[in-house]
């Protein structure tokens, strides 16, 4: 285990600015940044994740094909010797351990935050993944690129290049993706005019979740891409405002 005096966040590097690109690990990164907790990043290539988890005693995050499946993010907190897997559990741990700092999951919202996170994964991340998959692949290191391609092609039964081929198929998937953002826009609109965050005026883990997907689109597709421009223009500018509000926490340590 590292002798770092601050929390270690384990993340998968890319070639994008700051190297951090994954929406899953950005949830934990936003959580640390919003709470203002010092940390440092240790970069782990995809093929090395399982060995890391077993070496530091990190729990698996799901059972896949009858076997434990290990994923990032993971944090190690030297002040408590805790090793925590899964972004939502990391947020819960940070709130419990660092009580004097802003809460990511305000009391009484635990079930809502868990449900919201699961819904975003199912209705946004999984829907738009085919469109972002190739750009995500191409910004990985050679070792992680091979792992990403092999595992995703086994899961989806086709080459990454065929997940969302240019033309009508890709356009239809992206249109559906924008529609899922619009659905979330409708939910957030219940808060009233001028409310930027899911909980209204205060950021929570739910905003870290949405923000992580905005960062993913921006970094792997590029700020001049059609996809990023579509997001900024969508839903009366809601996502542009949220991205701007979260930008002060869009930091890689």
Automatic annotation (TrEMBL):
Keyword Cell wall biogenesis/degradation on entry: no
Sequence ranges assigned to domain GST N-terminal in this UniProt record:
12-102
Q: What are the record keywords, sorted? A: Transferase
Q: Would the keyword Chaperone be found if you checked this record's keyword annotation?
A: no
UniProt-listed Pfam families: GST_C_7, GST_N_2
Q: Which Gene3D superfamilies match?
A: 1.20.1050.10, Glutaredoxin
So which domain of life are we looking at? Eukaryota
The UniProt entry's coiled-coil ranges are none
| GO molecular function, a single term | transferase activity
Instruction: Give the protein's recorded name.
Output: Glutathione S-transferase
Q: Which organism is it from?
A: Heterobasidion irregulare (strain TC 32-1)
